[in-house]
Amino acid sequence: MRAIQIVLIALALVIMFVTLNRRSSQRSQAFKKVALVATVLLAISAIAAPGVVQRIAESLGIGRGADLVLYITTLALLYIAIDVYLRFQETDRRIAELARALALERAEREIHQGRSPGTNSDSP
Fold first, then answer.
1. CB of 110 within 8 A of CB of 104?
2. Which of 24, 60, 110, 123 could form a disulfide with 115 if both were Cys (CB 3.0 to 4.6 A apart)?
3. What is the dihedral of CA 65, 70, 76, 80, to 10 degrees?
4. What's the pTM value of the predicted model, to 2 decimals?
């Protein structure tokens, strides 16, 4: 095994362990954790035995193993981009909902205190 293969395998393992131990990943779905582990194991396999990737690519009608890796990586990055976009949309929706609820709560509190909603108690 070449030195670059050892380094790349070590980096793949570090990425997997760091991601699995993050607080947010503990709350993530089990599918994503399984997918991460499978991806890392596939990456390690491809790094350790690049000839296998070449044979798989050829059996799929793709000229080079590197092209197959590029296609798979492109699809994975597209999935990640869409997932992040949808999460941000959901977060924006939740923030707007919370802001509306807070504004209504403040307005109700001001009405119960005998003030007009939106007025500052410090103003004359």
1. no
2. 110
3. 160
4. 0.61
Angle between helical axes of 3-21 and 30-48 (0-180°, round to 10): 170
Q: Indicate if 44 and 81 belong to the same structural domain.
A: no
Query: 98 in a domain, yes or no?
Result: yes
* Domain count within the chain: 2
How buried is residue 40: exposed, middle or buried, by Cβ count under 10 Å (0-12/13-18/19+)?
buried
Residue 54 belongs to a domain: no
Matching residue, tokens 């197959």:
68
Q: Express each pLDDT in 15-31 by its tens digit.
A: 777 666 665 555 566 76
Q: Note down the domain range covering 96.
A: 65-114
With respect to residue 88, please indicate whether it lies within any of the assigned structural domains. Answer: yes
